[in-house]
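Q: Convert this sequence to structure tokens.
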Amino acid sequence: MPRPKGSVAHNEATDRRTFLQEFTSLGAAGVAKKYGIAERNVYARRRKLEDMLGVQLTPPAKGGHVQQLDQHPATRQLHIRNGIVLVGSDAHFWPGIHSAAFRAFVQFCQKLNPVAVVMNGDAYDGARVSRWPDGSWSDMGAKPTVLQELEATQAALSEIKKASPKARHLFPLGNHDSRFEMRLIQQVPEYAEVHGTKLKDHIPDWEACWAVLINKDIVIKHRFKSGIHAPHNNTLWAGRTMVTGHLHSLKVMPLSDYNGTRWGIDCGTLADPYGPQFYNYTEVNPLNWRAGFAVLTIKDGELVWPEVVWANSANTVQWRGEVIKV
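A:
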């Protein structure tokens, strides 16, 4: 703990307690200002104590909304000192189809031993309960039943969980996932509270939520802003690194300001962009979509530059300069 000039030296235990109290109440900038030292020295002391005591020291929330977000019952918290988080999104699981991105996701679960796996929304498509009609132009436009889709989603999520047995499994719900329950609730609202009417009732091994918060500076949720610049605008408006799906674009966009660098990340899609899930509303248009997923590596409590795995063909993915068969 830094001490003002002329002060009487405290014993180490008192010194630690003082630092813990002041860091959590004043933050790094406040401690640095109080004792006239560099913030980097405060952060170095914080890391040393976290390693020594096995705890995570958090600065005070900057506003009421931030504190409410961190305590919101629809969020899940992850405190990660060192480890990998795999984030896949928009799988739109379809009976009988295992895309290259999905197969790679399962392999990376086995290979990287992640501390957490996040399925970031739209695992379930809900084709029969959408507003888009069946494609009458071809048998390829026929939609699976609700039960067939549900069973395909359950099987795929079970495969992911089996490949990552030590990980925590989290599922921020997407707009397609909501179709499962919304159609039923709209037609027979009296059944809204009956077990089995919600998608999360059928995937009990995954923690359903609206957002996953990591170390107070990373938010993973299905969607926020829209448009081609959504990843940039997401992190700009959130003030934190934000990982989203929904747009299927697979990209990492850094944003740097006086607070440092954070990232807007789009997870892409675990489905084939030209798969049958999308026949009836993309109309075979050129799609600025990419299949793949995100790999978040956290070291000493800090997110290093985020990576993506790109499924560049039906049988291969690209990662760290390698083409990997899946």
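The longest helix spans residues 12-35.
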